[in-house]
Amino acid sequence: MKLSLLEGKKKLMTIALSVGFAVALAGCGGQDGPAVDSSAPVGQQVGYQITGIDPGAGLMRATERVIEEYELEGWRVQTGSGPAMTAALTRAYNNNEPIIVTGWTPHWKFSKFDLKYLDDPKGIYGAEEYVHTIARLGLQEDLPNAYTVLDRFAWTSDDMGAVMIMVEDGLDPVAAANAWIDENAETVASWIEGVDAVDGDKISLAYVAWDSEIASTNVVAEVLRSVGYDVTLRQVEPGPMWAGVADGSADAIVGAWLPTTHADYYAEFEGRFEDLGVNMEGTRIGLVVPAYMDIDSIEDLK
């Protein structure tokens, strides 16, 4: 009789431990499905948070306007950086979890993941964006050959995307830029045709550490180096980037997103720089979510 009681107690302990272990596993979540209630409102699913990038970016200011204009009470934009945003997106996507991020095209994330923009009925993010090349005043007189290259520089979103993918896959940005240059010799030749080689003339290019601008700035830098320039790259925030060109401490930027993203800086420093025009068309900014999320418009966030 005592043996039976002991065996019974052992069985009860085994069952209890098994149940507890199963509950613990369930609490940890996993790779097979979302760790949140997908039937809950989207705001609850993501903690009423939009994962953003650099606090000084025009995209972030536009997103603050989105929260205000769409009356998204309780929502906030989490500031950070481009790499931090993509890291959060990668974690969420790999776990099939909901997330809303500030996004732009072109960007390698659209090649890696199945994503979609949320419709913006109020048009706060604007329509198509264009990337411009901006030079300091007097650059044409001081560095005429570099000015010619910068003025001619133009490529497509597919070109930029090719460089970004190489970098994302582990290639050094300089190596990725040179690989693209080697594969697109005819395009590069059109930028440097008739340009005289120089002997170590110094030029500085400012850029924001977004994947898109890392790609474009390194490509232009390598092309300038190929004709003899001593190029310095200065990674800064958007405000100091524009201020640098305006005060002459930076010679040029090739990542000015207009008319929306950098609109405030363009207006603030207008007259203190030269706009060399569009170097890439077909860009876009807005709120981006994984395609598996059942949401299509910013209005659905209410």
Task: Sum up the structure in keywords.
disordered N terminus; Dipeptide-binding Protein, domain 3; globular; 9 strands; cell membrane; 45% helix; D-Maltodextrin-Binding Protein, domain 2; alpha/beta; signal; Glycine/betaine ABC transporter; five-stranded antiparallel sheet
Q: How would you explain this protein's 3D organization?
A:
- Keywords: Cell membrane, Membrane, Signal, Transport.
- GO terms for molecular function: amine transmembrane transporter activity; carnitine transmembrane transporter activity.
- This is Glycine/betaine ABC transporter.
- It is found in: Cell membrane.
- The protein has 13 helices and nine strands.
- Helix content is 45%, strand content 20%.
- The protein is of the alpha/beta class.
- Strands 3, 4, 5, 8 and 9 form a five-stranded antiparallel sheet that branches. Strands 1-2 form a two-stranded parallel sheet. It has a two-stranded parallel sheet with strand order 6-7.
- The chain has two domains: 100 residues, D-Maltodextrin-Binding Protein, domain 2 (3-Layer(aba) Sandwich); 154 residues, Dipeptide-binding Protein, Domain 3 (Dipeptide-binding Protein, domain 3, Roll), CATH 3.10.105.10.
- The N terminus is likely disordered.
- It is globular, with a radius of gyration of 25 Å.
- The protein starts with a helix and ends in a 12-residue tail after the last strand.
